[in-house]
Write a structure and sequence with these properties.
Blueprint: E1 2-6, E2 9-11, E3 17-24, E4 32-38, E5 45-50, E6 57-59, E7 67-72, E8 77-82, E9 91-99, E10 102-105, E11 109-113
Parallel strand pairs: 2-11
Antiparallel strand pairs: 1-3, 3-8, 4-5, 4-9, 5-6, 7-8, 9-10, 9-11
């Protein structure tokens, strides 16, 4: 099983980034896919989740209206479009795949919002 994140980087406040997570080694369409983030000294928190059937989408209150999660089942990829980025969005962003007791994590991609 592999989850490989990409798309992180340094961006100015108000800017945008698009994170991608390429999945392999499991039945992508059967898993709920999520993005989490962890800032230094803080606990890992859920940013956005899309259910396996793409019916249920959930966002953290702090990113509602700014971030959009989507998945491309043909490419086994989940994206996180991040707009109107704020300093407080700075964190390591992790891709997660979950189905029942099965729970997989990527290595993370760093997002830094700074002027």
């Amino acid at each position: 099983v592999q989850l490989v994140e990409s798309g992180g980087g340094l961006v100015q406040p108000g800017g945008s980034l698009r994170l991608s997570c390429a999945a392999s080694g499991f039945t992508f369409g059967s898993y709920d896919m999520s993005w989490y983030r962890q800032a230094p000294g803080k606990e890992r928190e859920l940013v956005a989740r899309i259910s396996s059937a793409s019916v249920i989408i959930r966002y953290a209150d702090s990113v509602k209206g700014r971030f959009i999660i989507s998945n491309d089942k043909a490419k086994n990829t989940v994206h996180l479009q991040m707009n109107s980025l704020k300093y407080e969005d700075t964190a390591m962003y992790y891709c997660n795949a979950k189905r029942g007791s099965l729970n997989y994590w990527g290595q993370g991609t760093q997002v830094t919002v700074s002027s």
